[in-house]
Each structure stands twice: as C-alpha cells, then as structure tokens.
Amino acid sequence: MTSPLRLCVRRSPAPEADGAATLVTLRLPSDVACIEEAVELVTRHCLAGHSATRTIRFRLQVVLSEALANAILRGNNEALDKWVEVRAELLADVIRVYVTDQGPGFDPSAIPEPIRPDQIDEAGGRGLFLIRKLVDAVQFNEQGNSICMILRRH
Question: pLDDT per residue over 27-83, tens digit each?
Fold first, then answer.
C-alpha cells in the first residue's frame, strides 16, 4: 500500500542525545494510512548497519505500529491538522524510540493490563500491553502524550 503522502526521514549525528551515534526523526500526519510506511521507514533506518535478528525487527515493527496507532487514534483523535513525531536515538546496543502526539495526554498507570477474560472485549489497553511486553523499558513524559520505548539490540 502506498500512502498519498511522501514521508521523509532525517538521519543525523546526535551529540545531544545522550551518547547516541545517530538520530532518526520523522513527522507524519494523523492518518492511519501512513502507519505502515512510517513503520517500514523508521525500522529500516534504525536497523541499518547493524545485524538485527528477526525477533528485534519484529518487536520494533510491532511497538512502532502500536505506538503510532495510539498516537493517531487516541492522542490526536485522527485530527488531520495534528502531527505525530517519531524520534529514534540509535546507540551501538540500544534503540530508543519516542512517539509524541499533539493530544492532551493520559495517565498510563490508569490503563489496566487486558489479561482477564472480562477485559477481552474492552477497546483500550491492548496496544500498550503489547508494547510493555515487547520492549526492555517504557517511559512516558509527565503530560502522557509521549512514549519512550527502549529496545536492546541483542
């Protein structure tokens, strides 16, 4: 599937990014049709020059997809005048990915893990649950509109 919009990824040295060798940034509109292309672009740039296992590639793709979907659907409510920013700080042994929307934010501690049978049909929480299970660490900013997902390369 090709989106009507051409997404642009920027790769640059990241001296301010806490020891990161490379910084990858991407800005995309609040349009779910852009998620697949954004995930492919960011994954390609995050794994370039490194031998990545299929597991690492899979985890990165799933958490990016979930975080972008949450940002677009829940954070920005698909408002086409709002944007989602992706920032990936690439270190030798760690990938740090930030996904930030322009929404009001939320309290991540208020989202229960959807693991009980009575929660199966509930609309929320599954994406965040998957993210927490697939990365090594998750952090949110104080406002709750930016997630940082930390994934070790090995």
Answer: 999 999 999 999 999 999 999 888 889 999 999 999 999 999 999 999 999 999 999
CA distance 106 to 111: 9
Give the residue-averaged pLDDT of 131-145. 96
Q: Is 116 exposed, middle or buried (0-12, 13-18, 19+ CB in 10 A)?
A: exposed
**CB neighbours (10 Å) of residue 33?**
13
The CATH number that domain 9-152 falls under is 3.30.565.10
Sheet holding 22-29, edge to edge: 9-12, 22-29, 83-90, 94-100, 146-152, 137-140
Q: Which of 86, 80, 13 is nearest to 43 (CA)?
A: 86
For residue 72, which of 115, 36, 28, 111 has the smallest C-alpha distance?
A: 28
152: Cβ contacts below 8 Å, ≥ 6 apart = 93, 94, 136
